[in-house]
């Protein structure tokens, strides 16, 4: 018999409950073989799409209730995961650092205060906080002024030594250098917005009379703007920072307002420039120059700011697939475990954690998945997703995953325009992943019977436009899976108008995120 729409709704209502309490005990009432043959046939049919003829496709589906593997195709093959890498990074970070972990940014002095004069250096020290905004640096400057300091005879020392000096991942493409999703990593950084896109500035253009007006968020003179754009009948503009420089060149025509997130060349210098400007605005004059360096032993703390907790940061990190958060957390793990804020130390923590939780096929080159040398098998991803269900922090982590078809950016995240109007909507909690020729979707879904399922779908080396709809069809079919009834055919609703099919929202921030 066919399943009614009412029963599909009822199945969706129990989705949240199915995952709330972590691991489930095997249910004696379930017939292990019922419905599996139909599911296998349907997934095979979906994967027979001609776009995958020359591609590689790995899919694994497992019942979290019985432990049964419901479907497997190339389960052990090493595939490029893209942002599915963040599943491993985030889980290792929560386990290693804890949900209550906070980044700190402090201001210290190396000299003595006599009246309104501080004789010595002022030190700005960071530990990688990606949530620092210009207003937070301003608040630190206000505290220095409130302490009665008007003149600093020494230098402003920017201490980013909590991490090493390697700013970019070994395998990152040079052509991504100025892109916000590949911004350089530093222990001192700043974000322009509450998506916390650390190490970037928003550059906006608008037609203002007969000229193109350029503004930045935050307001800063750190970037050198070369505006060659003209007012036109349409907006066709390029905003691009030149290689290894602070110069942003703007060309093209502007009719309607447009903005672009631009990665800075040196996040430490950028953050310290924001702080120095705020000091001046609060009447604090630093006589010396801004220099990089480490706070000496015995430096006295004058002001401090603590970030939100890691548990809270998981939301913008995972929902919006923030690459910079992943890399900062990777180095933070290395710093805690090995005393080294490096990629190599942090990746060892993530890899060791994955292997301790049953993952066998793994190659981690960064924390975000931006590297094309990252490699996981779909079977390994499912093993990780199974293992973390037993962790005390699972509920918080699970809620941070994007939720299919939920239009709220901080709920649906990178899945907000996908699978709307289907049994997968507000049911599938999963991490997306996108690179050219790579797409992945891995996570959790509750079946039509209320049975919790774990899945990983990895599609690599296709030459067509992105086959994300294939992922969606499989996820919807899993939401329909029943051991007692036949699934209905469901027509997928198209994504929001204007959403590019090749890339997830996190790669297209100015328009879609």
From TrEMBL:
One of its GO terms (molecular function) is serine-type D-Ala-D-Ala carboxypeptidase activity. Its EC number is 3.4.16.4. It holds the Pfam family Peptidase_S13. It comes from the Bacteria. Residues 1-20 form the signal peptide. InterPro entries: Beta-lactam/transpept-like, Peptidase_S13. Keywords: Carboxypeptidase, Hydrolase, Protease, Signal. Belongs to the peptidase S13 family. NCBIfam families: PBP4 (TIGR00666). This is D-alanyl-D-alanine carboxypeptidase/D-alanyl-D-alanine-endopeptidase. The gene is dacB.
């Amino acid at each position: 018999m066919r399943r009614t729409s009412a029963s599909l709704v009822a199945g969706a209502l129990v989705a949240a409950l199915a995952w709330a309490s972590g691991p489930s005990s095997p249910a004696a009432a379930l017939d292990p073989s019922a419905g599996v043959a139909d599911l296998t046939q349907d997934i095979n049919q979906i994967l027979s799409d001609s776009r995958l003829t020359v591609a590689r496709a790995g899919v694994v589906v497992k019942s979290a209730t019985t432990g049964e593997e419901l479907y497997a195709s190339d389960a052990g093959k090493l595939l490029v995961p893209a942002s599915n890498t963040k599943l491993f990074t985030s889980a290792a970070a929560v386990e290693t650092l804890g949900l209550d972990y906070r980044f700190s940014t402090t201001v210290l002095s190396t000299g003595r205060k006599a009246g309104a004069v501080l004789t010595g250096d002022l030190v700005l020290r960071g530990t990688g906080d990606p949530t620092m905004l210009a207003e937070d640096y301003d608040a630190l400057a206000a505290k220095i002024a409130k302490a009665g300091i008007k003149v600093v005879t020494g230098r402003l020392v920017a201490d980013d030594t909590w991490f090493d000096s390697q700013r970019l991942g070994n395998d990152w493409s040079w052509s991504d250098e100025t892109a916000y999703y590949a911004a350089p990593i530093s222990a001192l950084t700043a974000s322009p917005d509450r998506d916390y896109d650390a190490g970037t500035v928003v550059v906006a253009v608008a037609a203002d009379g007969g000229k193109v007006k350029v503004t930045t968020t935050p307001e800063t003179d750190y970037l050198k703007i070369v505006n060659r754009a003209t007012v036109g009948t349409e907006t066709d503009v390029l905003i691009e920072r030149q290689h290894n420089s602070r110069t942003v060149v703007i060309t093209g025509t502007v009719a309607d307002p447009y903005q672009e997130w631009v990665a800075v060349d040196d996040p430490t210098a950028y953050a310290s420039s924001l702080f120095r400007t705020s000091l001046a605005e609060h009447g604090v004059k630093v006589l010396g120059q801004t220099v990089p360096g480490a706070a000496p032993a015995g430096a006295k703390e004058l002001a401090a700011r603590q970030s939100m907790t890691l548990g809270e940061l998981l939301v913008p990190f995972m929902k919006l697939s923030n690459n910079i958060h992943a890399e900062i957390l990777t180095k933070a793990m290395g710093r805690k475990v090995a005393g080294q804020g490096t990629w190599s130390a942090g990746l060892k923590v993530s890899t060791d954690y994955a292997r301790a939780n049953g993952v066998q096929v793994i190659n981690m080159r960064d924390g975000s998945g931006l590297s094309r040398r990252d490699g996981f098998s779909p079977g390994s991803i499912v093993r990780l997703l199974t293992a973390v269900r037993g962790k005390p922090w699972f509920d918080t982590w699970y809620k941070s995953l994007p939720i299919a078809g939920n239009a709220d950016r901080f709920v649906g995240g990178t899945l907000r325009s996908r699978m709307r109007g289907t049994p997968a909507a507000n049911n599938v909690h999963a991490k997306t992943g996108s690179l050219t020729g790579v797409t992945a979707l891995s996570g959790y879904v509750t079946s039509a019977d209320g049975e919790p399922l774990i899945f990983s779908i990895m599609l690599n080396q296709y030459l067509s436009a992105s086959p994300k709809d294939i992922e969606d069809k499989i996820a919807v079919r899993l939401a329909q899976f029943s051991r007692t009834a036949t699934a209905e055919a469901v027509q997928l609703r198209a994504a929001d108008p204007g959403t590019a099919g090749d890339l997830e929202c996190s790669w297209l921030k100015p328009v879609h995120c």
